[in-house]
Amino acid sequence: MAKKQRYKFCFGPWNISEGADPYGPPTRPPQTFDWKLSKLKKLGFDAMMFHDDDAVPDIDGKSEKQIRNEAKELRRTLDGEGVAAEMVAPRLWFSPMTIDGGYTSNDAKCRRYAIERSLRCIDIAKILGTDLIVLWLAREGTYLRESKSGKRSIELIVEALDKMLAHDKRVRIAIEPKPNEPMDHAYIPTIGHALAVAQLASDPKRIGALIETAHCILAGLDPADEIEFAMSFNKLWSLHLNDQNGLKFDQDKPFGSTNLRSAFNQVRALERNRYGSGGEHVCFDVHPFRTTKIEHWLDHLVNSRRTFLRLVEKARSFDEATARKLSAERNYQALDQMAIEHLLGS
Fold first, then answer.
1. With a threshold of 0.90, does the pTM exceed it?
2. Is the pLDDT at 346 greater than 80, yes or no?
3. Domains detected in the chain
4. I need a surface site. Which of 30, 146, 276, 323 has the fewest CB within 10 A?
């Protein structure tokens, strides 16, 4: 009998958000990074995700030496808490230099900025002890089709990837696709696009993918199928589990809170393909509801992890032999009800 997978869990400091949205101010006071870090282990998590400016605040105003020194100090703090850095991502969507995109900007100076910042991000990741860089290509798209060439934009993204790969021969890059928001349309909207672009790079073996549940749903795709597609190529290097109420804005709801059956099938896909056996983490990119009180501030993380582990139990106790038999008989009505009753319990 195959050994059962033990999962490692992760979240980022941005997942303890203060409740601001485009229509209103924060509803909770900000907390320090140290406070957030202190909660991580207590909640049963093993690692923290970082943007480059989570690791080194105000990064654009600091010298390379300052950046390295602050990253080293953070590494000492993480080691002291027994917390790993799961990944580091360059935050290329806040700067005035990336209004028109980072790697695909029509301004060559802005493209240089995006690449240089990405190289500093790689340096930070190396100091923090992770070889994984995540690229959420937030502004690599257009509001107007006439403003950019799609083919040229892909060439520019590949050029940026190649410069990152050349900067550190051990770095791995996981592309996190999303079809829209903040841009009208993104150039790499799905995992299929991400893995296709990887083949154009100088070292495709070092480019993989990060799947986020909500982003799959926003693309009109099934997250479980996207998980298994990426794992067919051995390219699922990280994972952001959450939930989404239809084709709206990116909601980052607690995992399983909208569609429990979809969440079950995502966990089932991870289980049968042994996600995590290569050291990968289960990350929850979830946010508390804006209405959440201070005393319930961390519940969305606790609940997402709890739901995941309960669904692991459900996946492991699902009668796969009967499911295969019903599939062979094409008795999908019975299989449908079997899945429903399994989730409902006795």
1. yes
2. no
3. 9-319 (3.20.20.150)
4. 146
